[in-house]
Write a structure and sequence with these properties.
- The complex is a heterodimer.
- Chain A contains ten helices and nine strands.
- Chain A has helices spanning 50-57, 82-88, 104-115, 120-133, 149-161, 179-194, 206-212, 230-235, 240-251, 254-261, and strands at residues 10-21, 24-35, 39-43, 65-70, 89-92, 167-171, 198-202, 215-220, 223-228.
- In chain A, strand 1 and strand 2 (24-35) form a beta hairpin.
- The longest helix of chain A has 16 residues, at 179-194.
- Chain A is globular.
- Chain B contains ten helices and no strands.
- In chain B, helix 2 (12-46) packs antiparallel against helix 8, helix 4 (67-85) packs across helix 5 and helix 7 (138-168) packs antiparallel against helix 9.
- The N and C termini of chain B lie far apart (43 Å).
- Classes of the chains: A alpha/beta, B mainly alpha.
- The A-B interface holds A 58-60, 83, 86-87, 89-91, 93, 95-101, 110-111, 114-115, 143-145, 159-160, 163 and B 124, 126-127, 129-137, 140, 144-145, 148-149, 152, 225-228, 231.
Chain lengths: 263, 244
């Protein structure tokens, strides 16, 4: 069934994914294939199922039917164990989910030590490297409660990177941030994208999507409505619902609309 | 009415012996009870089939029966039951000390289990998800991420429970064991100085319990610098403590 040529380099294969909460159907058959190095942005109205979708990838949600396969970049084999999948798939949450009782550096060191079996000294070095990368190195000894939202989210990104995943999932990473700090977090994610990190980002930030995405996907009522490169998605959407969605999202943001129109 | 304090002073070595036993029993029951209670709370929180129902039954039972009754039951009935199990058929006596340590631990574990379980539920779901997303195993998640936060958040209530436990150790009187109160009572009755001894005992209990409360309050204030406000608010509502 899998054509060796077409599945070359694929890192994520989702087929026929369905999920419901009781009687309410949230995902109604999602198909998605992601290649290594691709940047996917998923957008859509609230309750469309976009968060549920990415949470199914790393097992935070179970699903009713369909398949989700994460491919190991080194061996090309499908990862079967949930713990292996979670090792390869990093996630950044809307509410950061940093551990408040541990310092910033301890937050970053915990997973490499426990999950990858890395020695503490190496874990510390790695943590300092990634904290520096997201530009919060000077906060290493502080506790999450002492940092601003933008700093906390960047620590969360560094923490996920310390496990050295092959895919990064972002679940509305800037939705809980004050507008002033949204850009610093987006810039961090853009930096990651430029280095070739495979990523799937659920977001409302359309300017970011245009800049970074290889594909933009609109999900509405549990189905993929439109899937296209940013130029086509924003300038020449094929579907009426996409146009309606873009109209609503950009309505209150004439600045964004202008930016999008002029690239 | 005169207050013969000298009688109390001269009985100090004996009183201290009794106090030592009270403290010993409290520490063993607290540590054992917390270990067992935390373990049971996690089992119930995870919803492990069969085991979590067993824990629920155990906790409900222990919290429904007065401690004095549990002490009697353990001291008198368990040896009989054990006797039936052995081929010889003789009842196996469990010494009063052993009974006290085991019974108090088992009894307190039910109370600690409920405190920890409430704490586990109060921890933000995102903490569990953050740990899982990083690939932490269930045991690492609980030991490195969740339980430390639960203990910090519930420390005041755990201290309260331990203070109650310390006061309850006086019940070993019914097993003819000599704790602090028991020692004081013996001498008071022997020397007919009830007022002096019982007053002193009351003051000592008051001092120890006050110091315990004060230390926990200071610890809580120190932790308050680190935890996020949301958790504190939740704990307040959960335990109905205005001063938290």
């Amino acid at each position: 069934m899998d054509d060796a040529f077409s599945t070359q380099n694929e890192i994520l294969q989702i087929e026929g994914l369905e999920q419901s909460y009781g009687a309410i159907s949230v995902l109604k058959g999602i198909d998605l294939r992601v290649k290594k190095g691709e940047r996917i942005v998923i957008c859509g109205p609230s309750g469309s199922g976009k968060s549920t979708l990415i949470r199914c990838i790393n097992g935070l949600e179970t699903f009713k039917s369909g398949t989700v396969h994460v491919i190991d970049v080194h061996s090309g084999e499908r990862l079967r164990q949930l713990k292996d999948i979670r090792r390869e798939v990093g996630m950044v949450f809307q509410s950061f989910n940093l551990f408040p009782h541990l310092s910033v550096i301890e937050n970053c060191m915990l997973a490499p030590v426990k999950v990858r079996g890395v020695k503490k000294t190496e874990a510390r070095e790695r943590s300092l490297y990634f904290l520096n990368k997201v530009r919060v190195l000077d906060q290493a000894k502080k506790y999450p409660g002492q940092l601003s939202g933008g700093q906390q989210q960047r620590v969360a990104i560094a923490r996920a990177l310390c496990v050295q995943p092959s895919i990064m999932l972002f679940d509305e990473p800037t939705s809980a941030l004050d507008p002033e700090v949204v850009q610093e977090v987006l810039a961090t994610i853009v930096g990651l994208a430029k280095e070739g990190m495979t990523m799937i980002c659920v977001t409302h930030e359309m300017g970011f999507a245009r800049k970074v995405a290889d594909r933009v996907i609109l999900i509405d009522e549990g189905k993929i409505v439109e899937e296209a490169a940013p130029a086509q998605f924003f300038d020449m959407p094929r579907h009426e619902r996409t146009r309606a969605f873009l109209g609503r999202v950009l309505h209150g943001h004439p600045e964004t609309a202008r930016r999008l129109a002029h690239g | 009415m005169s207050f013969d304090f000298a009688a109390v002073v001269s009985a100090t070595p004996y009183l201290l012996q009794g106090l030592l036993f009270s403290v010993e029993l409290t520490l063993v029951a607290m540590i054992g009870g917390m270990l067992l209670g935390t373990f049971m709370a996690i089992i119930r929180h995870m919803g492990v089939p069969v085991a979590s129902e067993a824990v629920r039954a155990y906790v409900t039972l222990m919290r429904s029966i007065p401690l004095i009754l549990v002490l009697f039951w353990f001291f008198f009935l368990v040896p009989l039951l054990l006797g039936h199990l052995t081929p010889a058929g003789h009842s196996i006596p469990l010494g009063p000390r052993f009974t006290a340590f085991i019974t108090f631990t088992l009894f307190e574990s039910a109370y600690y289990a409920e405190i920890v379980r409430a704490g586990l539920k109060a921890i933000d779901k995102g903490q569990y998800e953050g740990a899982k997303a990083l690939g932490l195993s269930t045991s690492s998640m609980y030991s490195s991420v969740v339980v430390p936060q639960v203990l910090r958040a519930t420390a005041p209530i755990i201290v309260s429970q331990t203070i109650i436990l310390f006061q309850d150790t006086a019940l070993v009187y019914v097993l003819s064991l000599t704790d602090f109160l028991g020692a004081a009572a013996k001498i008071a009755q022997r020397d007919s100085k009830l007022v002096e001894f019982y007053s002193t005992v009351a003051v000592v209990y008051l001092l120890i319990c006050s110091i315990g409360s004060e230390l926990s309050e200071r610890f809580r204030k120190k932790q308050g610098q680190r935890s996020s406000n949301g958790r504190l608010e939740r704990a307040k509502r959960m335990f109905g403590l205005a001063r938290l």
